[in-house]
Design brief:
heterodimer; A: alpha/beta; TIM Barrel; globular; B: alpha/beta; Rossmann fold; 17 helices; 14 strands
């Protein structure tokens, strides 16, 4: 509970796996595509297949969600998948299997962040979770319901195991809170493009670009934008100003429904390739309104 | 069941003893011991900060406190009476039993105290829309009532199952002008209604206030809702001193989220000789797993913004709760209660559905008062406390019970439980139980 003290001693000597990758992409003058999928949907085995399909379709950083009974930052698409994963018997520890599978598949070139609601980590044991995540090859955590003020124990664990700490900022964040969150984060800061929860939207929040600029000014080396980024066009638009484009519901949506699994995977690959292409070429193509 | 009546279990550590030397009644968040906090998305922090600032200013503003006092007096009907129940007390081992009659408030429970306070705050903050969760209706009806009175748009989130079982309560809220949104995801319970209210709040926080119904949630809700309910204990303290000439030996209240319990406990927290008892829903029995007894069957964890005792599985997934009383049917509890529990200042015990329903019927038949089934858990607990005091040879024992709500809403449930009328006839009236954390 000593968030204030903890964040001030954020160690510069811990290297950021995700930050290193984002720096490489910045050198290539392009943004990263950060792709989200939940572990265990529709089963743990198939979620491994889906995640590998995502990686092979051009995702640069992976965000693996652990299904939770009360996901208050998620909209209907992710909720449905999370509920399906829980119904299929997915356990928290399954996330480490999936992380390991990705790491082995990519040789560690794609940083794997785990997105989790905090009670799951608390129950597992913060230090134990960090230890097992690091051992599986994971890069760090994205914590949607943990603010730096409450994160003392996590900051200690992340520092000792060399893990990234991705906290969120929102359009409602004050300058003081942007500074605090930027200071506490390692890897990148997750900028919520709009006030709301995850989901497929017809447009990306208009406040996102200013929020990225403000968060950088508050000291964040890298800022990625999520919430509502659903199409190649959105991806390209965000990729012009952000270090990364976070896409979740648009991917998860391709996996819902009753179509044969191979068809769903094909649909996932097509969506991911299309958004990845939009992200990759955003800064080199003519900006057409 | 505990095998004795501990006056005050020994505090567990030096730091806990140090805390006991300070006033417990005025404890402020964000932390109550190791409980509470703000485990919420960053998007809500600015609104929570604004809320805390405004509520502190409001409580120091005579215009605000004066208006709230006027509403308490002229609208709610405060002060609520204190009633001695002598025929009921014959079953309590010789203790005298007094009921704090929150059931006589407008809308039928203590909920109105908090709702009016927060709704006045909403006006001060210049917001125009409130959202609320409801288990089965009591807080939703109170919120809709305040919204009508103060001209606010009101949206109530309610599990789909509850909207079907509580069709008349849905109609009540709609009569009052509120929009009722059935929640069709998750377990379709109160917990899921809160999830959905939080999602709405994140998206509309600029013009919307989340009028949370109990002493749970992120700071400042646990502290603020306690402040709006402390009037229960303050009135009761004056009333019991007037009637008995001294403080009670024990206080009994039911604990869902814990707002009525904290409201009455608060005025006595610093009186070490007054024993405080919170009664949770033991459901069908702790051993069956079908209960809402967080202190008997849960462990500390985070849900809906606060760290507190929580029903959860080995992975930290929230477990479903169960109670005959919808208002006690919630998997977590206000963080201040977790703190009082760990300090040993208050004792929390489960009361089963069957024990609560027996006490419900007893109060009906001995006193002509139909209590809410939630409050019947406190009545059953009071009977237990009185009998234990008698067994320990204590005389002149006085128990104060917070009768937090009235039982009109529970008539159909009770009729079914006691097999009083044809089941089909009840189905047609479709009243059922109502939420009252």
């Amino acid at each position: 509970m000593n968030g204030v003290q903890e964040e001030n001693r954020t160690s510069v000597e811990v290297r950021s796996r995700t930050g290193d990758r984002l720096a490489e992409l910045r050198a290539e003058n392009r943004a990263a595509l950060v792709g989200y999928l939940p572990v265990g949907f529709p089963t743990v085995e198939r979620s491994v297949e889906a995640v590998l399909a995502l990686v092979d379709s051009g995702v640069d950083v992976l965000e693996l969600g652990i299904p939770y009974t009360d996901p208050v930052m998620d909209g209907p698409v992710v909720q449905e998948a999370a509920q399906g994963a829980l119904d299929a018997g997915t356990r928290v520890s399954d996330v480490f299997r999936v992380v390991r599978a990705v790491t082995e598949h990519t040789g560690g070139t794609v940083p794997v962040l785990v997105m989790t609601y905090w009670n799951l980590v608390l129950r597992y044991g913060v230090d134990e979770f960090a230890r097992d995540l690091a051992a599986a090859g994971g890069a760090g955590l994205i914590t949607p319901d943990l603010i730096p003020d409450e994160a003392g124990e996590w900051v200690r664990a992340a520092d000792s195991y060399g893990l990234d700490k991705v906290f969120l900022v929102a359009p409602s964040s004050t300058p003081e809170r942007l500074r605090r969150t930027a200071g506490a984060s390692r890897g990148f800061v997750y900028a919520a493009s709009t006030m709301g929860v995850t989901g497929v939207r017809t447009e990306v929040g208009s406040r996102a670009e200013q929020l990225v600029a403000d968060t950088r000014a508050a000291g964040a080396p890298f800022v990625c934008v999520g919430l509502g980024v659903s199409t190649a066009e959105h991806g390209a638009q965000v990729a012009r100003y952000a270090d990364g484009v976070i896409v979740g519901s648009a991917f998860v949506r391709t996996l819902l429904g009753d179509a044969p699994w191979e068809e769903r995977l094909t649909s996932l690959r097509a969506t991911a390739s299309s958004i990845a292409a939009g992200v990759r070429t955003a800064r080199t193509e003519e900006v057409d309104a | 069941m505990p095998d004795s009546t501990p006056t005050h279990p020994a505090p567990r550590s030096p730091s806990v003893r140090a805390e006991l030397t300070q006033s417990l009644a005025d404890a402020d968040g964000p932390y109550f011991g190791e409980f509470g906090g703000r485990y919420v998305p960053e998007a809500l922090i600015a609104a929570l900060d604004e809320l805390e600032t405004e509520y502190r200013k409001a409580l120091d503003d005579p215009a605000f406190t004066g208006e709230l006092a006027r509403l308490h007096r002229e609208y709610t009907g405060r002060p609520s009476p204190l009633t001695e129940v002598t025929r009921f007390a014959e079953h309590a081992g010789g203790s005298r039993v007094f009921l704090k009659r929150e059931d006589l408030n407008h809308t039928g429970s203590h909920k109105i105290n908090n709702v009016l306070g927060q709704a006045l705050l909403v006006k001060r903050m210049g917001k125009s829309r409130i959202i609320a969760e409801t288990g089965a209706g009591q807080h939703g009806v109170a919120a809709a009532t305040a919204a009508a009175l103060l001209d606010l748009e009101c949206v109530v989130y309610m599990g789909e199952e509850d909207t079907r079982r509580q069709a008349l309560n849905v109609a009540r809220m709609r009569l009052l002008g509120a929009e009722v949104v059935p929640v069709t995801i998750g377990q379709r319970t109160l917990k899921d209604a809160i999830n959905e209210a939080l999602r709405d709040w994140v998206a509309h926080v600029e013009d919307t206030h989340y009028l949370l119904g109990t002493v749970t949630g992120p700071h400042p809700f646990p502290q603020m809702v306690r402040e709006f309910h402390r009037i229960i204990g303050e009135e009761a303290r004056t009333q019991i001193l007037d009637r008995v000439g001294r403080l009670p030996d024990a206080i009994a209240a039911c604990v869902g989220g814990g707002s009525n319990a904290l409201g009455i406990f608060n005025a006595f927290l610093d009186d070490a000789d007054v024993e405080l008892y919170g009664f949770e829903a033991g459901g069908e029995g702790i051993e069956t797993g079908r209960h809402a007894a967080r202190f008997s069957g849960g462990a500390p964890g985070v849900l809906h913004g606060a760290r507190s005792y929580l029903l959860q599985d080995d992975d930290g997934q929230t477990l479903p709760s169960h109670s005959v009383s919808a208002g006690l049917d919630y998997p977590s509890v206000g963080p201040a209660h977790s703190w009082l529990h760990d300090l040993g200042r208050a004792t929390y015990q489960p009361v089963t559905d069957a024990e609560a329903m027996d006490a419900f019927r007893l109060l009906c038949r001995t006193e002509g008062i139909i209590p809410a089934i939630e409050s019947a858990h406190a009545l059953a607990g009071a009977l237990r406390v009185g009998q234990e005091a008698a067994a320990a040879g204590r005389t002149d024992h006085v128990i104060l019970v917070n009768l937090s709500g009235r039982g009109d809403k529970d008539v159909a449930t009770a009729a079914r439980w006691f097999d009083l009328v044809d089941d089909d006839a009840i189905a047609e009236t479709a009243t059922g139980t109502e939420g009252q954390l």
